[in-house]
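Request:
Um, any thoughts?
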Amino acid sequence: MAKRSSLSIRIVEGKNLPAKDITGSSDPYCIVKVDNEPIIRTATVWKTLCPFWGEEYEVHLPPTFHSVAFYVMDEDALSRDDVIGKVCLTRDTLAAHPKGFSGWAHLTEVDPDEEVQGEIHLRLEVVPGTRACRLRCSVLEARDLAPKDRNGTSDPFVRVRYNGRTQETSIVKKSCYPRWNETFEFELEEGAAEVLCVEAWDWDLVSRNDFLGKVVVNVQRLWAAQREEGWFRLQPDQSKSRREEGHLGSLQLEVRLRDETVLPSSCYQPLVQLLCREVKPGTQGPGQLISLIEETTSTECRQEVATTLLKLFLGQGLAKDFLDLLFQLELSRTSEANTLFRSNSLASKSMESFLKVAGMRYLHGVLGPIIDRVFEEKKYVELDPSKVEVKDVGCSGLHRPQTEAEVLEQSVQTLCAHLGALLSALSRSVRACPAVVRATFRQLFRRVRERFPSAQDENVPFIAVTSFLCLRFVSPAILAPKLFHLRERHADARTSRTLLLLAKAVQNVGNMDTPASRAKEAWMEPLQPTVRQGVAQLKDFITKLVDIQEKDELDLQRALSLQAPPVKEGPLFIHRTKGKGPLTSSSFKKLHFSLTTEALSFAKTPSSKSVNRLNQWLSALRKVCINNTGLLGSYHPGIFRGDKWSCCHQRDKTDLGCNKTRSWVTLQEWNDPLDHDLEAQLIYRHLLGVEAALREKHRQLSTGPEAGRGPTGPGEAPRDPLAELLQVLGDLQEAHRSSPAGSPPSELSRILELQT
């Protein structure tokens, strides 16, 4: 069993930011750090003091983390980026908001004396003496100190202060992982100071020394313990007065901390088996438990429950059957064809999650080139006459105003070209579509055709498929390519408008060019010939897409399973800086890497159009290595040159390492490997929250006319799935009560208590 923590982060927007550029504006972006380790960088929003990001992330991290900080930066092309301010949320603050922290937070100044990181290894003892006891402090080593010098390191030393006396260690040059192994002693007297202060500093020859952090030890608690040794986290100096909050603007955030104690796999088997029995093909009954879960799930958490259930059934190989059951449940309560899958039901939310998990790579292959072309061309496109901006055209000296009709005509041509390219790419992509996605669409198409068999509803099965494929997958990706990892940056205003109009056209095609969709915006009428042609193309594509036999499905799945899918792929820049400073020249070498669960390879030719940032690659590497039993607990971030390590200056080449391995801080992405036990735990946690509603429903069913009529097998007594579920929840609740996981080690608790 293990304690697992995760952060759900949504960086919404900023407002009233200060201007950092001479133009009176800023180019803001955000960096997110967990305990001073950068893990997220948002896109830059250009030339604004009120940026909107709307970016969402899921971060898995160790339960022992202390804080998460959001830095708002101003990007500069010719100089170092400016720091505008930050918002820091401690673990205690997040734990005090079980439903998550949500709202506006004022940005505060970033003081260098508060930007500390790293830990220091101390041995603290109370030594008896003939006259008085003595306090002995051994400063052993430190790790992950903040680099304060331009060469990317520091020259650290430690200052120990107690009862008016100060002693210092030697200086270790050019290292963020120094080792001192020096001991200092102080007399303990009646009425002496109650705290011992250990400060780390970066020595500078010319300017003042830089503060690296401190540890304050409670001497009275140490007296009771007599001797303690361990790694102490360096704390900032927060003694300085602050300016009034709000002068740096505000940041709107949604952050939720979730701590889960995950039991051994065997504990979840009864729950998993019970849910799987509900969706397996051939079982009798209408999927009573799945229907009850949907009934008792509130709108605000339906997406979360849908995603978790989908991942659980994906792990069991039953995703297609789970979705098929949801299709049947929704069709059974739908009487009007035009309302089918239009609500935020469990079926709609589950299908959205399914397409992101199983079809994202397919989406990148089909849509990626079209999105790239829109971004690169940057053409002005507008169809709404009330929004047309007339501009000058022509060569130098022969400028003339471009007429509104010319703008509209060119816009129609551009949009028709993009829409035609997209539909052609879709038409050619039948075999590229993942087998499980094709099989799921086949089931959906067949179920809808059985439910609405009349000739007047002949388009309904096609619209059912396009309601997910076009309206909930392709169109959202066109509107926000950054959120679907199709681009690294948000679109500018001109490109955003082009993408919006293209998404509208795709929606009209997906709606099969119905009169209702045409009536919304009359100025979209010039696109109708292309839309009508697109409807025919799309229907032909869907006909081929769902024409997949069981044998073909198995062959496709077998072929896909022969090679390990890439975890991450894309270009990385390897460079060697010549000299110091942001304006100096560098030599770059661009290589295209591909990481799978089996190998890391690279080549000179591109294998993907996505540009991956360093933290995403680190996250992917950690996920691949997480099950490695030989994973080191620490390592040397430097090299052994001459006769010592460049990082910690140790002369033993076989030294175990000076920097701890951060193997548990990872970003969750659509192509992450499944965590079966965690998904089962999350489902249990949700069901426990609605247990009262489930018990009430069980009481009603037990006393109603359907009592005792549960589905059975041949020769079996009627079973009650809801009663079984309540029993399973009780057993899991008891297993959690008896679980010792989640409590910190007693030795660590005693050490932490020494800090005031």
Observations:
- The mean pLDDT is 83.
- Residues 301 and 686 are 9 Å apart (CA to CA).
- The first helix runs from residue 91 to 95.
